[in-house]
Write a structure and sequence with these properties.
The chain is mainly alpha-helical. It has six helices and two strands; from the N terminus they run ααααβαβα. The chain has helices spanning about 15-20, 20-25, 75-90, 110-120, 145-150, 170-175, and strands at about 135-140, 155-160.
Length: about 180
């Protein structure tokens, strides 16, 4: 197993200024897929024998074209590249002018992305020096998971309903 010899550097940009310090100090998780891209990874609880052959109704125990006993690559490189190609309108790899795979997040639906954003940028029950808690703003009617994730993460909710024409109420939104 290789040792990470990269130097620690401070993240830059707007997100780094807004993210919670404890999140910025996390070290990336290393999994077996970082060092190996083939074979059976028993430390990842992969089944060395493969699944039963029921999906194909085959009596051959090795008839397993779907590799259901394997975890997919946690980095989703091929999916991210396809998304970039589609978004950039190209059939090849992305260029400096387009979206790059390293800037794409793939989650398990929008619920995961919403929860991660709240956990990264809002401290639970945290108040800044002025007595204000970290909060998210919702503009009802909206997706209910914003409120659920804020409540699960103990983050305050500022609610500014949309107008009857579904426009933002700019003066009220600007107050926060």
């Amino acid at each position: 197993m290789s040792t990470d010899t990269t130097t620690n550097h401070s993240p830059t940009g707007r997100a780094a200024k807004l993210a919670r310090p404890n999140v910025l100090s996390l070290q990336p998780y290393r999994c077996a897929r970082d060092d190996y891209d083939s074979g059976i990874l028993l430390d990842a609880n992969e089944n060395a024998l493969g699944p039963a052959s029921l999906p194909t109704n085959s009596l051959d125990p090795y008839d397993n074209g779907m590799e259901l006993e394997r975890y997919p690559c946690p980095y989703q490189r091929s999916v991210k590249q396809l998304l970039c190609n589609y978004r950039n309108g190209k059939s090849g790899s992305s260029t400096n002018n387009g979206v790059k795979p390293e800037n794409v997040f793939c989650g398990v639906g929008s619920d995961e992305a919403i929860d991660l954003l709240i956990r990264i940028f809002c401290a639970p029950g945290h108040t800044n020096g002025g007595g204000q808690c970290d909060a998210i703003m919702i503009t009802p009617p909206t997706y209910g998971m914003y409120k659920v994730c804020a409540n699960v993460n103990d983050v305050e909710i500022q609610s500014v309903p949309l107008t009857p024409d579904f426009d933002l109420r700019i003066p009220e939104v600007s107050m926060y």
